[in-house]
From TrEMBL:
<feature type="domain" description="Major facilitator superfamily (MFS) profile">
    <location>
        <begin position="1"/>
        <end position="299"/>
    </location>
</feature>
<dbReference type="InterPro" id="IPR011701">
    <property type="entry name" value="MFS"/>
</dbReference>
<keyword id="KW-0812">Transmembrane</keyword>
<feature type="transmembrane region" description="Helical">
    <location>
        <begin position="273"/>
        <end position="292"/>
    </location>
</feature>
<dbReference type="GO" id="GO:0016020">
    <property type="term" value="C:membrane"/>
</dbReference>
<feature type="transmembrane region" description="Helical">
    <location>
        <begin position="51"/>
        <end position="73"/>
    </location>
</feature>
<dbReference type="InterPro" id="IPR020846">
    <property type="entry name" value="MFS_dom"/>
</dbReference>
<protein>
    <submittedName>
        <fullName>Putative proton-coupled folate transporter</fullName>
    </submittedName>
</protein>
<feature type="transmembrane region" description="Helical">
    <location>
        <begin position="148"/>
        <end position="171"/>
    </location>
</feature>
<dbReference type="Pfam" id="PF07690">
    <property type="entry name" value="MFS_1"/>
</dbReference>
<feature type="transmembrane region" description="Helical">
    <location>
        <begin position="111"/>
        <end position="136"/>
    </location>
</feature>
<dbReference type="InterPro" id="IPR036259">
    <property type="entry name" value="MFS_trans_sf"/>
</dbReference>
<feature type="transmembrane region" description="Helical">
    <location>
        <begin position="183"/>
        <end position="202"/>
    </location>
</feature>
<dbReference type="GO" id="GO:0022857">
    <property type="term" value="F:transmembrane transporter activity"/>
</dbReference>
<keyword id="KW-0472">Membrane</keyword>
<feature type="transmembrane region" description="Helical">
    <location>
        <begin position="27"/>
        <end position="45"/>
    </location>
</feature>
<feature type="transmembrane region" description="Helical">
    <location>
        <begin position="208"/>
        <end position="230"/>
    </location>
</feature>
């Protein structure tokens, strides 16, 4: 979570505001490709060489990434004089003040939905693999681990393609690139995840479950839009502290929600309603959509929005 936030902050620091969503949608797919390759290769490595080799492969990949950062990524913002003495706790407090004390231009109601969305999504990501494997390993699916691996990879591919092409398609349809556009893209993405969760919950055959894959395409651009939104709502000098705070909140809450999902699935399978956990997740995502709608209100009268509207190609549509 912290790694993704740091990457997002760096990209938005070196990219003009009106180009951030498109730029992030170009970079983030490589993370999806990595996840897809990892999903497909992990099973092969484990069955062929053992679990230790999987961990060694992961360690080497992380080490290569760190070496690239150390030797090729340059600082773009000068460090503050007090950065050397600033503790992690004070950094988190500083980030919390951005959300709860600094309500400049009504940003609080726009940032809170993003934090809630991150927590809900991360909680499900943490348990999605194990839940889906258990869910598809029972009737009426009876999938093997290889079949599940291909299904997970197909969803990743759809998400990657959505980030690469879906973002541009949506922006072209809306006709402008600004804060409201990012909110709209995020709303569409979360709504598509609701559809995926409901299809999964009510599937009674493998064919029906596969219908969820195309909706991952339209869900893909949401991650880029979320990163772009944060960069536009939080000033560059506060993004580091804000990311530290939101990462702390997500890391603290997501595992608890994930554990609840796992416990819920165990009890619901016993009760004969294994899809209940996906219905609950869809309900949480519906709350995210409503909060995003609330956060989007008033943008037409915001001076920052008006300035960005002038940079766009036309008048945006409110969804």
């Amino acid at each position: 979570m912290s790694f993704i936030g740091t990457v997002t902050n760096y990209i938005t620091d070196v990219t003009p505001a009106e180009e951030r969503t498109a730029t992030l949608s170009t970079v983030f797919p490589f993370m999806g490709i990595g996840a897809m390759v990892g999903t497909l290769s992990a099973g092969f490595l484990e069955s062929t060489f053992g679990f230790q080799v999987v961990l060694l492969f992961s360690f080497c990949a992380e080490l290569i990434a760190l070496l690239f950062v150390a030797f090729f990524v340059k600082d773009v913002l000068p460090p503050k004089k007090d950065d050397q003495t600033k503790s992690i706790l004070s950094e988190i407090k500083s980030g919390a003040s951005v959300l709860f004390q600094d309500n400049t231009k009504g940003n609080r109601k726009r940032l809170l939905p993003l934090v809630f969305s991150d927590v809900v999504n991360m909680a499900f990501i943490m348990c999605e693999g194990s839940l889906m494997m258990l869910y598809t390993n029972r009737p009426p699916f009876n999938w093997t681990s290889n079949a599940f691996g291909f299904y997970a990879a197909a969803k990743q591919v759809a998400g990657v393609l959505g980030q690469v092409f879906g973002t541009g398609i949506i922006i072209k349809f809306i006709g402008t690139q600004n804060v409201q556009t990012d909110f709209t893209i995020l709303q569409i993405g979360v709504s598509m995840n609701i559809v995926v969760a409901l299809i999964t919950a009510f599937s009674n055959s493998s064919v029906m479950l596969l219908l969820a894959i195309p909706f991952c395409f339209l869900a893909g651009p949401a991650q880029s839009a979320g990163g772009s939104l944060t960069s536009k709502l939080v000033s560059s000098d506060k993004k580091g502290s804000y990311t530290a705070f939101t990462s702390f909140i997500t890391t603290f809450l997501a595992p608890m929600i994930s554990s609840f999902y796992n416990q819920l699935y165990s009890s619901s399978v016993t009760s004969g309603i294994p899809g209940l956990v996906f219905i609950i997740h869809a309900s949480a995502l519906m709350a995210v959509v409503l909060l995003l709608r609330f956060g989007k209100q008033g943008l037409e009268d915001d001076e920052t929005y008006k300035q960005e509207q002038g940079k766009g190609k036309g008048k945006g549509k409110v969804i």
